[in-house]
Each structure stands twice: as structure tokens, then as C-alpha cells.
Design brief:
Length: 91
């Protein structure tokens, strides 16, 4: 099984124990995200809606390429980088 590193925005540090990078395992994006959520279940509400879709303000990149939950079969290579970004708005 491939190992990947998930990078999270600073706003999510409290949900994962004050770290911004989490190592996960999975041969696909979907498996890697499932691994992440097993280890840090509180992330689910921040990243996904009630229908398990990425929230509209959340973007996800795999090795620099934007992906969506519909792409969960994307194959990961060893050392893949998964990055989550959250849009921040306000005035």
C-alpha cells in the first residue's frame, strides 16, 4: 500500500493534534482519505458534507492537481502529496 502525506490548513490543526501534515496509507485517493478519517474522525465535518462530498469551500490537490471526491479512484504513487485548502472569506 502506498504512503502519502496529507497537508492541512492551519485552521484544522486542532482537529488533528496541532500538526499540519499527516502520513496516511492507500493505493487510491479514496483509500488515503478513508485512512485519514479513521485516524482523525473530527476532520470529516470540516472537509465533507452530510453526503460525503467535499464542502464547497474546500479544495483538494493530489501532487498539485486539483481533484474532487468523484475522483476517489485516482491512483497514488508512493510519497504522493495530498493538500487540502479552505477558502476563507469575510469582511
Amino acid at each position: 500500500m502506498a504512503r502519502a502525506v496529507v497537508s492541512l490548513p492551519r485552521l484544522l490543526e486542532p482537529a488533528v493534534g496541532a500538526v499540519r501534515k499527516v502520513e496516511v496509507e492507500g493505493d487510491t485517493w479514496g483509500e488515503a482519505i478513508a485512512s485519514l478519517l479513521r485516524r482523525h474522525p473530527t476532520l470529516r465535518v470540516h472537509l465533507f458534507d452530510e453526503e460525503s462530498r467535499l464542502r464547497p469551500h474546500v479544495m483538494c490537490f493530489v501532487n498539485g492537481q486539483q481533484t474532487r471526491l468523484e475522483d476517489k479512484a485516482v491512483v497514488l504513487s508512493e510519497g504522493a502529496e495530498i493538500t487540502f485548502l479552505q477558502a476563507v472569506s469575510g469582511g
